[in-house]
Amino acid sequence: MTSTPDAVPAAVPSPPAPALPAAPPVGLGVPTAGPAAGAPVAYSGPVAAAGRFVAPDLLRGIALLGIALANSVYYVTDRVTGPLARPVDGSTGDHVADVLVGTFVDNRSFPLFTLLFAYGFTVLVQRQASRGVPRGRARALLLRRSLWLSVFGALHVVFLFEGDVLLSYGLLGLVLAAMFAATDRAFRIVGWSTLVVFLAAAGLDGLAGGGPGGIDGLPVDVGTVLGDALWRLLALVGLVFTAPFTVGMLLPLAVLGTLLGRRRVLERPAEHLPLLRRLALVGFPVSVLGALPLVLATVGAWQAGPAVLYLLGVLHGATGVVGALALLGLVGWWVGAKEARTASVLVPAAAPVRALVAVGRRSLTCYLLQSVLFVLLLKPWALGLGVGAGTLTISLIAVGVWLVTVVVAVLLERVGRQGPAEWALRRPTYGRPAAPPSAQRPAGRTAGRRGQ
User: Fold this and answer.
1) 390 with 64: CB under 8 angstroms?
2) Does the residue 389 lie in any domain?
3) Is-contact 364 5, C-beta < 8 A?
4) Hey, how many other C-beta atoms are within 10 angstroms of the C-beta on 351?
5) What is the distance, to the nearest Å, from the Cα of residue 97 to the centroid of all Cα atoms in its chain?
6) Is residue 85 part of a domain?
7) DSSP character for 77?
């Protein structure tokens, strides 16, 4: 499965995960104090950088490296591909890259980012509730944000990358907006009932990818600018028609992210250290062991028929969710342990941590920038580095592209600017920010001065 963004199952078929603590009541209603009755309550807008929590942004920064590695292989052309979209005739170096990426990245970064999407969505709900925003207005905000994210995704498909997930995340957001006041039990029912859709989609990664052209039977030549544009238009139509299936596939992951968000596991990691430790210590071995059978088949270490490969794809995808939770647990454990020792919210001091957090704060911008750079470097009608390329080369290019986004994010952080994509999404979602009171001159006083 391809992956991203804002910058995301109730369970998977694996050893049982640690039980989550009970969530505090979540709901939105009319404030009991504050503005006069009938006066609209202002939305709780985006949080300033100084007020953001470290763990979610740090995880997004790490996940974007995985997304770059996972998505880059889909730009390889003129190679016969097999499971996990890897060329079947790779070199020894390619096979090493395939084992590393297939074990630790493929179907691990995508679930993590989906979890984080749903977690961030839940945080947005909680901020509106804490401000006392009435339920109808809060739902309207969530729906507006999701619709605009869908627009961003559609434009991303048309102009850059047919493997976009922003459109799917936007549609998923519509479902979450409709369910935002539902109970934990309702979310679990939805997660369990759609788990089969997730597993059915995961199995597809075990099947062969296609011929030397990358897409068998395609009626257009993707090696030209026009043909590539036509293909992306067809891909957009396909994404729209398969949207119910895609959203059903994402819902189990979104349920996990929602339940974690309702318990503020990443915002208050010091309070959840036992859970985070178990996620990390149990999750990583399960993730690796579940990934290896398909990965070994991908590099030709053993042969299997299509039915077996499909089942191995299911195993790879299911344990990938466990791997995503393991990384979430590891980062949350580290941040929570730091907070517990200092008795305060961690302020990242190390330069690498600050850089990853800067990327996470601008995850939408960095995700879209990845696509821009991949198109310029890898498309046959651009520099064409993806034509006939091996996966080792493609992986190194992906790491380089991610590093470019890190530099951009750090520069924006230093000047105190949000990412342009974040600004473009938040502006239609929240509207124009109100002018501060000091900037508003009373009309009566102005008239008096003029009359003097």
Assistant:
1) no
2) yes
3) yes
4) 9
5) 23
6) yes
7) B
Pair of tokens at residue 211: 């011929």
Q: Report the DSSP beta bridge partners of residue 87.
A: 81
Which neighbouring-strand residues pair with 208? none
* Cα–Cα distance measured from residue 290 to residue 14, given in angstroms and rounded to the nearest whole number: 9
Range of the domain at 316: 49-432
Confidence tier at 135 by pLDDT (50, 70, 90) = confident
Asked whether residue 206 is domain-assigned, the answer is: yes
Tokens (6 digits) for 153: 């995704």
Q: Is the pLDDT of residue 62 over 90?
A: yes
Split at pLDDT 50, 70, 90, the class of 108 is very high
Measured distance CA(118)–CA(100) in Å, rounded: 27
Helix (H, G, I), strand (E, B) or coil at 306: helix
pLDDT-based confidence at residue 20 (cuts at 50, 70, 90): low
Confidence of residue 451 (pLDDT cuts 50, 70, 90): very low
Q: Is 90 exceeded by the pLDDT of residue 363? A: yes
Tokens of 94: 């390619």
Distance, in Å, from the CA atom of 12 to the CA atom of 195, rounded to the nearest integer, reads: 8
Position 270 in a domain: yes
Q: For the range 229-232, what are the long-range contacts, defined as Cβ-Cβ under 8 Å and sequence gap of 24 or more? A: 229/158, 231/162, 232/157, 232/158, 232/159, 232/160, 232/161, 232/162
d(CA 17, CA 31): 37
Give Cβ neighbours of residue 130 (< 8 Å, ≥ 6 apart): 44
User: Rounded to whole angstroms, how far apart are CA atoms 143 and 178?
Assistant: 8
Burial of 416 (0-12, 13-18, 19+ CB in 10 A): exposed
Residues in the chain: 452
d(CA 251, CA 83): 25
Instruction: Give the total number of structural domains in the chain.
Output: 1
